[in-house]
Amino acid sequence: MKSRKLTFINAEGKSLSARLDLPANQDPHNFAIFAHCFTCSKDFSAVRNVSRALASEGFGVLRFDFMGLGRSEGDFADTNFSTNVTDLISAAEFLTKEYKAPSLLVGHSLGGAAAIFAGGQIESVLAVATIGAPSNPQHVQKQLGSRLEVIRQEGQANVTLAGRDFTFKKQFIDDLEACSCTDAARKLNKALLILHSPQDATVSIKNAEEIYHAAHHPKSFVTLDGSEHLLIDKKNASYVGKVIAGWAARYIPAVENDTISTTYQVVASLDDEDKYTTELKLGNHYMKADEPPSIGGNDYGPTPYELLAGSLSACTAMTIQMYARRKGWKIDNVEVHTSYSKSYPEDCQSCPDDATAKIDTFTRVVKLTADGLDDKQKARIMQIADKCPVHKTLHNETQVISRLE
């Protein structure tokens, strides 16, 4: 996955720090914006992992630091919930000008509430997804504890959150009290996905129920059973990204950009930090390749040789069914089971105990579900299996032409 460092200017004239996560071929079918959780940043693990999962499904994802947080300019004390919303609108304007208008907003925790507010104001957005979002922004007041009353009485106070000191002014509290997420959800009139964990101890799942009841259809709810509020577990965050991508496909058309960044059929992209987990774009489709944990991989996708064996299996099944239809033979189902290994040649009766004598071997088993096929027809089908294009490619002399670009 490719990630570009970017900056853009918000409505206050401040420079906001951002990253644009891109799919393997760097040619997103759609763009999304991610709004991070309260006092977090674009580099928080949940933000990064959900964004990367969306990018692996073909999205370009802009994640940025709200004003006064992370590497963005501005004083946090001068920000509030409403400035978060306007920052999201500024991010959408930046994407529209420099890349393509965003069609999806994703928000985590308070960022989810901000995404609902901003989604109703950004014309290009077709869908909004929230993760552990509060039904009312006032929910964050609970995190201020006893300092809340100090802020009300003295106009501001320092509050320590997750080991960091933040200055909160009374205008921050007043702004929260003036905003209702359920009202915004009621006015959204766009596809809405609500993801929430029943074990969320920070924002009760009751909040998800309130947002869901307020919103109009199309609306969906997905339980994140077993997850905690901050989605620290990478597998949980990746799951969330894939669920959002699958759901969004129903409401957002996947249109390729006019400028295609590659003329090749397949693109693979691997970051150093991902060990062996490789993002792939095969034609117009996205998937992962990986290695098993036993050799340092994450097992998030098939191995390269499993992909190759899969190509042989798929091509064999397609070729058999194509031939059967042409002959008027009814085959209800074709299963092709294939495994790869290094083995001695079949005609090697007394090969030496030498690994160099072994050859690449694909063991293929064909299962047919069909009534009325005689032995002669079955034998012909097996002959046809050996004529599938991938089978021929594996047997033919091939060449790989490489160049460094």
The helicity comes to 25-40%
| Arithmetic mean pLDDT | 92
Q: How many alpha or pi helices?
A: 11
- Extract low-pLDDT stretches: none
Span between N and C termini?
Answer: 17 Å
Structural class computed from helices and strand pairing: alpha/beta
Rg, please? 27 Å
The number of distinct β-strands equals: 15
Q: Based on Cα principal axes, name the global outline.
A: elongated
CATH architecture name of the largest domain: 3-Layer(aba) Sandwich
CATH fold assignment of the largest domain: Rossmann fold
CATH top level label of the largest domain: Alpha Beta
Q: What's the CATH H-level homologous superfamily of the largest domain? A: Alpha/Beta hydrolase fold, catalytic domain
Summarize the biggest pleated sheet. Answer: 8 strands, mixed
* Assembly state: single chain
Strand coverage percent = 15-25%
Number of domains: 2
Describe the structure.
It is built from 11 helices and 15 strands. By secondary structure, it is of the alpha/beta class. It has 2 domains: 248 residues, Alpha/Beta hydrolase fold, catalytic domain (Rossmann fold, 3-Layer(aba) Sandwich), CATH 3.40.50; 93 residues, GMP Synthetase, Chain A, domain 3, CATH 3.30.300.20. Strands 1-2-4-3-5-6-9-10 form an 8-stranded mixed β-sheet, sandwiched between helices. Strands 11-12-13 form a 3-stranded antiparallel β-sheet, with no helix packed on it. β3, α1 and β4 form a beta-alpha-beta unit. The mean pLDDT is 92.
What labels would you give this structure?
single chain; 405 residues; alpha/beta; Rossmann fold; GMP Synthetase, Chain A, domain 3; 2 domains; eight-stranded mixed beta sheet; three-stranded antiparallel beta sheet; elongated
